[in-house]
Amino acid sequence: MDVSELVTRLGLIVIGGEKGLDREITGGYTSDLLSDVMGHARSGSVWITLQTHKNVMAIASLKELSAIVLVKGYQPEADMLVQSNIEGIPVLGTEEEAFEISGKIYKHLNG
Amino acid sequence: MKKFRADLHIHTVLSPCGDLGMSPDVIIARAKEMQLDIIGITDHNSTRQCRVVKELGEISGIFVLSGSEVTTKEEVHCLAFFETDKQLFDFQGFLDKHLPDIPNDVNRFGHQVAVDAENNISFTEERILTSALNKSIDQVEAEVHRLNGLFIPAHIDKTRFSVIGQLGFLPPDLKVDALEISPFCRQDEFLSRHPVLRNFTFVSGSDAHYPEQIGKRVTVFELRHPGFREIREAMHATGPWRTEIIN
């Protein structure tokens, strides 16, 4: 499944990084500790978090993640959004909490 | 130049996790006993116990750096220190404005009281001080520096509540005056794991929550006199002023 398909299926909002909407999603990782994500997320994963700092993009790029989903209606900091567009890694938004959206993404990836 | 012993990370009775024995008089007495010349008062998200400690410190010849251990939105702990009462007061306004309105549960988390020089309770903080401000680390850093303060990410070697734990690495454009390592962390060992940080100035303190912990970790400052501006010069290492952590 690519990012745009996940966006359509779950009604996510595309906040930034549109040019990466064709990136392939091969898994998911839910964590708000960036050091944990840096150590343990696998490439191709969509990352579910509430962190909105610019470092999120650096780690997503380093780990070759497919997209970031910000939960609970959180908005990225301005410099995170800039970086999302530069890197072409989509930042997606949802009003849902991490538990709910992670469950739905899991279902779609493994259903 | 002379060497001055500093413990820059001390909590007081005001921090919910701080022992009720951490009153200003006890802190100053213990600092004397441990031959400290400089202490930093760093309660969680509050500066309200600084003034009394500073006043007692002046009587006893201990220079008190007034500040706070701030929790940013990302749950990164950062030390902030200020030179003047006005700057400290303005920063307290920033903390009051951005601390979430979550009531403290005294039985679960502990008391959050400030006391006067005679240990009478002068203030009770109703909101839990250990929650995170609704401001990012960049915004807190900007506010601290707008008020001409010192901004020091705390215990950066820890896996939680540190900038490296929460944000993976030190954001390269964050303006820090120094970096703090936790009391049991060795600077050389830390730098061998994080060589990219070798050009920063490091400080360390006890992170004392109990009186007996005060002065258990010391940073030595080479200064003419203990004072805010010379301490900043030492952290920036632009002149003859120096800092060194002693184990």
Structural class of the secondary structure composition of chain B? Answer: alpha/beta
From the 3D structure, determine the CATH topology of chain A. Answer: Udp-n-acetylmuramoylalanyl-d-glutamate--2,6- Diaminopimelate Ligase, Chain: A, domain 1
C-alpha end-to-end distance of chain B? 22 Å
- Strand fraction of chain B equals 15-25%
Radius of gyration computed on alpha carbons of chain B:
17 Å
Unreliably modeled segments of chain B:
none
What is the helical fraction of chain B, as a range of percent? 25-40%
List the helices and strands and how they pair.
The complex is a heterodimer of chains A (111) and B (247).
Chain A: H1 3-10, E1 13-16, E2 27-30, H2 34-40, E3 45-49, H3 55-62, E4 67-70, H4 78-87, E5 91-93, H5 98-110
Parallel strand pairs in A: 2-3, 3-4, 4-5
Antiparallel strand pairs in A: 1-5
Helix pairs in contact in A: 3-4
Chain B: E1 2-10, H1 24-33, E2 38-44, H2 50-60, E3 63-71, E4 77-82, H3 85-98, H4 106-109, E5 113-115, E6 121-124, H5 137-146, E7 150-153, H6 163-167, E8 179-181, H7 187-193, E9 202-204, E10 218-223, H8 228-236, E11 242-246
Parallel strand pairs in B: 1-2, 2-3, 8-9
Antiparallel strand pairs in B: 1-10, 3-4, 4-7, 5-6, 10-11
Q: Could you explain how this protein is built, in words?
A:
The complex is a heterodimer of chains A (111) and B (247). Chain A has 111 residues and is α/β, with parallel strands linked by helices. Chain A has one domain (3-110): Udp-n-acetylmuramoylalanyl-d-glutamate--2,6- Diaminopimelate Ligase, Chain: A, domain 1 (3-Layer(aba) Sandwich). In chain A, 41% of the residues lie in helices and 18% in strands. Chain A has five helices and five strands, in the order αββαβαβαβα. Chain A has helices at residues 3-10, 34-40, 55-62, 78-87, 98-110, and strands at residues 13-16, 27-30, 45-49, 67-70, 91-93. Chain A has a five-stranded mixed sheet with strand order 1-5-4-3-2. In chain A, helix 3 links the parallel strand 3 and strand 4 (67-70). The longest helix of chain A has 13 residues, at 98-110. The radius of gyration of chain A is 12 Å and the shape is globular. Chain B has 247 residues and is α/β, with parallel strands linked by helices. Chain B has a single domain, classed as Alpha-Beta Barrel (TIM Barrel). Chain B has helices spanning 24-33, 50-60, 85-98, 106-109, 137-146, 163-167, 187-193, 228-236, and strands at 2-10, 38-44, 63-71, 77-82, 113-115, 121-124, 150-153, 179-181, 202-204, 218-223, 242-246. A seven-stranded mixed sheet of chain B has the order 7-4-3-2-1-10-11, sandwiched between helices. Chain B starts with a strand and ends with a strand. The mean pLDDT of chain B is 96. Classes of the chains: A alpha/beta (111), B alpha/beta (247). The A-B interface holds A 32-35, 37-38, 51-55, 58-59, 77, 79 and B 73-74, 136-138, 159-160, 164-169, 171.
